[in-house]
Amino acid sequence: MTFGIFVGSTPGLTATMAVALVIPLSYNLPKEAALAMVIGVSFTAIFAGDIPATFLRIPGTPASAAATLDAHQLAKKGKGKQTLLINLLCSAIGGVLGVLILMTTAPQLAKLALLFSSFEYFWLCLLGLTLGVTVSSGNYKLSGTLAAFLGVLLASVGNDVTTFQERYMFGVSELSTGLSFIPAMIGLFGVSEVIRAVYRYNPRDKTTSSLQDNSSFEVKDSLKIIAANTPTIAQSVVTGTVIGGLPGAGADIAAWGAYGIAHKTSKRAEQLKFGQGIWKGVIAPTSANNAAVAAAWIPALVFGVPGDAVTAIVLGAFLTYDITPGPELFSNGGADFIFAIAMITQLLLIPAGLAGILLFGKFMKLPREVVLSSVVIFSVVGAYAMNNNQFDVWIMFGFGLLGVFLESRKVPLAPLILGMILGPKVEMYFRQGMIASQGDFSSAFQSTIDLVLFSSLVICILLSIAMTLRRSTTPLSLLPTE
Question: What is the model's pTM?
């Protein structure tokens, strides 16, 4: 779990990479110890990604991108430690509830996941993309939509997913596999922040000023905030469990989905504060994250179908551990041990997470030039480590400059990242569905799940348009202020 905290808090080193690195170390251990190591790393790395997201606005893992919007704004207001304490406790709560749901409803949710075909996944990813745009764009809906389209366009660089024809490569062979998402994310959120900080740099300022957090954890106030947002935690856990239980969805989609639902179910005055530093914007995605990690084990344990990249690696390691996923795993008690380890991990997450927050807080007290230089070094290492490719480092710096330009034009970055995440999935599932239906798009409306997801998509768009029109006709004096 300590290793998971270190890897997750290092930009570019994802939870998937942490599990992949730790599995070889587990080969000579008893299978119980090996499983404990793998499960511990996967849960802690997901939380740890929120630490640099809060202090530096650099998501440590893709699942931390949604929490970046409000967590960093709260940190700039001197509430970084309190934000991360609430984040940590909600992660543990979401994880515990997620494991309980995993224990009680694994077979039923796994059966539901098997009902999803290509078109169901197409509508789900399109709904997630739409929610992300409408929520993270704030008052700049058109700019957010354009950013999402730009993200989808950038995600289409490389070989075509079906025909393997070259697209937008311009003779650069390194682009055959596309623009790597992790270097792009580090560049947009991290390098762009460093560039702006250097531009504003004052040699007389020897601290990180706006990022430094000398406040305490405010334990009592934090517990009150969590208690007041119990409905948000509950709906986010359910959202994370449902989405996390769908093969291939992952914690990042679950986090954006929970963030979007929290925004839509909030009062209008609260909706205007999303992205500016509101507790719901932190609680929703982080509660969904660990619940989604637990739910990803549902199809993996019951049917041997990986729920995300982490469980895909773990399923490969199961053969080494002499564990066979399937119904017999539940009948012989093998799943009970996995459930117990997952539950213990959620309890140990709190002390491990607190240690990570305190250590990172010490790091933030270093002189500004040391912090900025360290961010660049870790960013370069993280970008390079993904594929051991120097070209990814140049991609990172290119997206850093792009991030500076876009934000100077009031274009939000989150929809662009979401477009890069979901764009390839939307295209892949759409084309798979069209091939399977021999070009008949009406097949995308045949199942009940298709109709429910499509209706949700339409309602989301209509509500967004209505809210935008209502806001544009409301006198400024009537708009709530912070």
Answer: 0.70
